[in-house]
Design brief:
Blueprint (H helix, E strand, L loop, with lengths): L1 E4 L5 H12 L3 E6 L7 H4 L4 E5 L16 E4 L11 H16 L6 E7 L8 H13 L5 E7 L2 E2 L4 H12 L2 E5 L5 E2 L2 E2 H10 L9 E5 L5 E2 H12 L4 E5 L4 H11 L4 H11 L10 H5 L6 H13 L21 H4 L7 E8 L3 H9 L11 H13 L20 E2 L2 E7 L4 E6 L5 E10 L2 E10 L1 H27 L3
Parallel strand pairs: 1-2, 1-4, 2-3, 4-5, 5-6, 6-11, 7-10, 8-13
Antiparallel strand pairs: 9-12, 14-19, 15-16, 16-17, 17-18, 18-19
């Protein structure tokens, strides 16, 4: 089958694309930025990429011979005040364009919407579902609650909480019931439902075999990891304070923390249906899904992460707009050193950040991360998706990878920390020499004061960094 996939760089879509390619389907993958095509998909056969922004109807042109399409565009972490309108318009434009093709089925992953009092994000997803309904194709909707898998937002947030806090004083929404589902099961539902006419124009709630409170999820997660945890809930923590608690304890952004708290106050339990029999799927338990996620992590095989989404940082446009470093009106710290072992230096560059640290005065980088967190930034807790592999769009602590070209021996990072300006960090090897460059474009007087305030630290931080990238210990 020829299948259209939207949201290709997203958590679910990236994994689904690989799964469909394994089944020998032909894929047409929509991306907003051609510089962000995932390496794992780009090098596969039977796949083409289209630069598409579904908010720009005039510049969208899809192949006519599409058999099915997946609508996997969400904006959980966005801070746009009108995100509900944007999501609806995006879905409407998608519908108009797909109706002009031969597409027989659209599959949509939504959220469980059984409660009368929905959060604004769940309400928005339900509106998108209604918008996607069409007389030209059959719509199959799967509604899921908490998705558990390596790199998922819920998994990483729970991991942060459990691994860092032996004793927890928590908000009362931890007693809310939910029905978590493994990401591998979600992918099975999405794939197995392809081309099944009996599922057209129907929606199905999907979930794991257990209904658990968030507190029980934390405790069971601890059991899998071998941790004994003690949790006490408070009845008087407001949603705002709960959001701050989640933000400071975990690696989530504040926008996502607010959205999650808003959703976690509502019970998310799947309505009974016969979809498991129809598709012959037996969902695994929560503990099994956590154990499988850690197998992926231990094998350094996390395919996608919620942090890959541009909305987890400061970007709301394309990476390519930031790749060209500014030359004028900027402050720079430039250092050049002769390389002793090029392969060693390249490997060190591609392993920088995350658990590996920043090689020089790492404690100062951690302090900068804490300061960033206090002022509402992303901090250092996002880490990196893979210990030795980088690609454009990856988060790297409080940086975003703009360019990662190992053949050209160049890595370019853009700062997503809170700054009175814009900052880039570049590593480039030219003719046996490592060029390390930090560029800062200040915004107003405050930006200039900031640069001079941190300038004394640059003298030994950046010097130590370039030495560590070259000298073998």
């Amino acid at each position: 089958m020829k299948i259209l996939i939207t949201g290709t760089t997203g958590y679910i879509a990236k994994r689904l694309a690989l799964k469909l390619l394994e089944s020998n389907h032909e894929l047409v993958c929509c991306v907003r930025d051609l510089d962000r095509i995932p390496d794992e998909i780009e090098n596969q056969k039977n796949v083409t990429f289209l630069k598409v922004d579904f908010l720009d109807l005039e510049n969208i042109e899809l192949p006519k011979d599409i058999d099915a399409a997946y609508y996997l565009i969400h904006s959980m972490a966005t801070d746009a005040n009108n995100f509900e309108e944007l999501e609806k318009q995006c879905a409407l434009n998608f519908k108009k364009i797909v109706e002009e093709t031969n597409c027989k089925q659209v599959l949509y992953l939504s959220g469980i919407v059984n409660d009368d009092s929905l959060s604004k994000h769940l309400r928005s997803r339900f509106e998108v579902e209604k918008t996607l309904q069409s007389e030209k194709y059959g719509l199959t909707t799967f509604r899921a609650g908490i998705v558990v898998g390596s790199g998922s937002a819920s998994f990483e947030i729970i991991r942060d909480i459990v691994e860092k806090l032996p004793l927890m004083i928590t908000p009362r929404w931890l007693n809310t019931k939910t029905q978590p589902i493994a990401v591998r099961d979600v992918l099975c539902y999405l794939e197995y439902a392809l081309n099944k006419a009996e599922l057209y124009n129907k929606s199905f709630d999907i979930g794991g075999p257990e209904v658990l409170t968030y507190k029980e999820m934390l405790l069971q997660f601890g059991e899998v990891r071998g941790f004994k945890r003690y949790i006490y809930t408070l009845p008087f923590l407001s949603p705002k304070l709960s959001s701050y608690w989640l933000y400071f304890v975990t690696s989530t952004s504040f926008n996502l923390a607010q959205a999650l708290v808003d959703s976690m106050k509502i019970e998310v339990i799947a309505k009974p249906n016969d979809i498991n029999k129809i598709l012959n799927i037996e969902p695994i338990t929560y503990k099994e899904s956590v154990a499988l996620a850690f197998q992926r992590i231990e094998q350094n095989d996390v395919v996608s992460s919620w942090k890959d989404a541009m909305s987890s940082g400061v970007f709301n446009d394309q990476l390519s707009k930031h790749i060209q470093l500014p030359e004028f009106g900027c402050f720079k710290d430039e250092r050049v050193k002769t390389i002793k072992d090029e392969n060693y230096t390249l490997d060190r560059i591609w392993s920088i950040g995350g658990e590996n640290g920043w090689y020089s005065f790492n404690w100062l980088w951690k302090i900068r991360g804490y300061i960033d967190k206090i002022f509402g930034g992303v901090g250092l807790r996002r880490g990196r998706r893979h210990n030795t592999h980088l690609e454009a769009g990856d988060p790297l602590d409080f940086w975003r990878v703009l360019l990662a070209d190992k053949k050209e021996k160049r890595l370019l990072l853009f700062a997503e920390m809170k700054l009175p300006g814009e900052a880039w960090l570049e590593f480039k090897i030219i003719k046996g020499k490592l060029h390390q460059r930090a560029v800062f474009r200040p915004k107003g007087v405050l930006g200039r004061l900031y640069w001079y305030a941190v300038l004394p630290f640059h003298a030994f931080i950046f010097k130590g960094m370039i030495n560590s990238l070259i000298d073998k210990k």
